[in-house]
Amino acid sequence: MIERFVYPAALAALAVPALLVAWRWWRRDRHELVFTVSAAALHRLQAGRGRVALRYLPPALRLAALVLLAIALARPQGGTRTREVTSEGVDIILTLDSSTSMKGEDFRPRNRLEEAKAQAAEFVSRRQNDRIGLVAFAGQAYTACPLTLDHDLLTQFLGQVKMGVVVDGTAIGTALATATNRLRESQAKSKVIVLLTDGDNNAGSVDPLTAARAAAAMSIKVYTIGVGKDGQVPYPVDDMLFGKRYQYVMSNLDETVLRQIAELTGGRYFRATSNEALARIYAEIDKLERSEVQSIERVDYHEAGLPFLLPAAALLLLEFLLAQLWLRRSP
Questions:
Q1: pTM of the model
Q2: Per DSSP, what are the bridge partners of residue 131?
Q3: Inter-residue contact 183 to 91 (CB < 8 Å)
Q4: Is 100 exposed, middle or buried (0-12, 13-18, 19+ CB in 10 A)?
Q5: How far apart are CA 259 and CA 225, in angstroms?
Q6: N or C: which end of the chain has fewer CB within 10 A?
Q7: For residue 260, what are the contacts with CB-CB under 8 A and spacing of at least 6?
Q8: Which domains does the chain have, with CATH numbers?
Q9: 299: enclosing H helix or E strand
Q10: Which tens digits make up the pLDDT trace of 160-206?
Q11: Tens of pLDDT, residues 116-172
C-alpha cells in the first residue's frame, strides 16, 4: 500500500499521456473521410483489418508505459506503521470495610459488602494502566493484595474478601495507615486511596485524622465512601428454630470523620445509599483520577516504485517488438 510520494510533482507527467490521447482523437475527427469502395477492395480491407487494428496497440502500450513511469518517477513509498504507547499510571489502594455491619441488606439483591466488591471490581476493569492493591479491614487491617498490574489476580483476591477473617470492629485509622504504608515507596506521579466503610472508628490504635495527615504528607489523595441508608437497616440473623430472619439495626456511619479525611488529603467524600449511587461514585472517581497516556505513531517507509518500473519496461519492450518485427511494413 502506497503511503506517500517523495516527488508528488512528478505526477503532473500523467497529463502527457492524456494530452496525447486527446490530440490523436482530435486529428482522427478532423481527417475522417467518407468514400466508396468496390466489393473486391472491401474484401482486401477486411482481410487486413486485424493487422490494421494492431497498429493502434503500440501507441496504447507506450501510453500505459508513460503512466507507469510517471508514477515511478514520483517515488511511491509504502510504510509500516508502529504505535508506541507510554503511560504514567496511578497507584491505587482500595481499602474495604469487611466488618459484620457490612451484612446490611439495604443494597439488595446483595448486601453492602458484596455490592462494594462488585463495584470495586468494575472500577478495576477500567484502570488498565494502573497498579492497584487491596486492603481489607474490620477490627484490624491486612493487605489482601499488594500493588499489581495483574488485575485478574487482584479481582480474585477481591472476591475472597469476607467477614470474620480478623476480629470484628471498624478500625478506620488503622486501615488508612496500612494503605498509606503500601504506597510509601511508590514512585507514581499520583497516589490514591479509596476507603469504603459503613461505620465509625471504634477499633484499632491509630486515630483516623492522624493517619490522614500522614497520607497528606506523602502526597496521597484519599477518596472516602460512606455506604448505607440512614435509619434502621435489615440484617440477616440465623435462627436455629425459624431459619433465616431479619433484625433491624440503626446505621452508625460517621460522615464527619470521612469528610475530614478527604479534606486533609485533597480528596472527596461520597455517600452511597443505593446500588446506582455507588456505581456513580466509582465512575466519578475513575474520571477524577486518569492515567496519562501518550501515543506516538512511527512510519518506516520503503521504496514501492519497482512494481511500476518493471511493467513499464515490459510494455516498452512489447511495443518495440510489435513495431519492429510484426507490424513492420514489407519492402
A1: 0.64
A2: 91
A3: yes
A4: middle
A5: 9
A6: C
A7: 208, 209, 212
A8: 2-81+300-326 (no CATH), 90-290 (3.40.50.410)
A9: strand 292-303
A10: 999 989 999 999 999 999 999 999 989 888 999 999 999 899 999 99
A11: 999 999 999 999 889 999 999 999 999 999 999 999 999 999 999 999 899 999 999
